[in-house]
Specification:
The complex is a heterodimer of chains A (about 110) and B (about 110). Chain A has about 110 residues and is mainly beta. Chain A contains no helices and eleven strands. Chain A has strands spanning about 10-15, 20-25, 35-40, 45-50, 55, 60-65, 70-75, 85-90, 90-95, 100, 105-110. In chain A, strand 9 (about 90-95) and strand 10 (about 100) form a beta hairpin. Chain B is about 0% helix and about 50% strand. Chain B has strands at about 5, 10-15, 20-25, 30-35, 45-50, 55, 65, 75-80, 85-95, 105, 110. In chain B, a hairpin with a 2-residue loop joins strand 5 (about 45-50) and strand 6. Classes of the chains: A mainly beta (about 110), B mainly beta (about 110). The interface between A and B is medium-sized, with 25 and 27 residues.
């Protein structure tokens, strides 16, 4: 399984873009990068995922480097409600079509008024 | 859709007691799983199921049993509760096959005294 490295914590001013980095230097060619977040001990919430290309949805953008060894999650206009722990996960396939999400400690993002 | 529901929200047990945490989903997802989250830590996989009648162990299965008699329900049984099982438990589900997003329940906060 490819491991991920994220900063322990980050601050972002309200209204500014939040850029959350993730290193996954041992990622394999068929492994996806997923981002989830967890707001104040609620159940984790899916944000976005990608393989090679940059991806964008209504919540965020995911920028994956050409060598796929790192990625950045971008929240374009952070609000106080975006304060959460953000998990970068590399999807490891195991067994007959099954695969498991492995959560690390993530990055605690604090959005400051 | 109610999504993934968990009951109870809170539970206090004495050491040695048994109980079942309930999890249900109404999205017709084949894959369901249970995680535990200890304070300040990421989520760890306990057990998972890829369909009715099929279950498998995750990272930390000891002390827990699961069964999957229907697509909708995936209960987690604590056989003989121990203080080390004090944690927040999350149930999750997703569609099998592709790299799809996983949906999490709100969690059950369990304290074993």
């Amino acid at each position: 399984d490819a491991k991920t490295t994220q900063p322990t914590s980050m601050d972002c001013a309200e209204g500014r873009a939040a850029n959350l980095p993730c290193n996954h230097s041992t990622i394999s060619g068929n492994e996806y990068v997923y981002w989830y977040r967890q707001i104040h001990s609620q159940g984790p919430q899916y944000i976005i995922h990608g393989l090679k290309n940059n991806e964008t949805n209504e919540m965020a953008s995911l920028i994956i480097t050409e060598d796929r060894k790192s990625s950045t999650l971008i929240l374009p206009h952070a609000t106080l409600r975006d304060t959460a722990v953000y998990y970068c996960i590399v999807l490891a396939y195991s067994g007959a079509g099954s695969y498991q999400l492995t959560f690390g400690k993530g990055t605690k993002l604090s959005v400051i008024p | 859709n109610a999504g993934v529901t968990q009951t109870p929200k809170f539970q206090v047990l004495k050491t040695g007691q048994s109980m079942t945490l309930q999890c249900a989903q109404d999205m017709n997802h084949e894959y369901m799983s249970w995680y535990r989250q200890d304070p300040g830590m990421g989520l760890r996989l306990i057990h998972y199921s890829v369909g009715a009648g099929i279950t498998d162990q995750g990272e930390v299965p000891n002390g827990y049993n699961v069964s999957r008699s229907t697509t909708e329900d995936f209960p987690l049984r604590l056989l003989s509760a121990a203080p080390s099982q004090t944690s927040v438990y999350f149930c999750a589900s997703r569609t099998s096959g592709g790299p799809y997003e996983q949906y999490f329940g709100p969690g059950t906060r369990l304290t074993v005294t």
